[in-house]
Amino acid sequence: METDLIKNLDKIHTTELGTLRIKKNLSLDTPDLISWCKNKVQNAESIDRKGKNWYVVVDGCILTINAYSFTIITAHKKK
Length: 79
Prior knowledge:
3 helices; DUF3781; 4 strands; membrane; single chain; 32% helix
């Protein structure tokens, strides 16, 4: 599954508040959240672009990534 998101994997980043929000929402305790997220994107079950965001479904969670800046906005456990 080759998407613009996969092609620009090296540009994926997040903010300090984004890091806190993602770790809290997914109950993560990983020292390198960006590497964790990049790995999840590479192993995604599905990657869909809806408007300005990419939605990555993997391992029971959904990552929301801005399609223009490649900023990880948030992540939630899949319901």
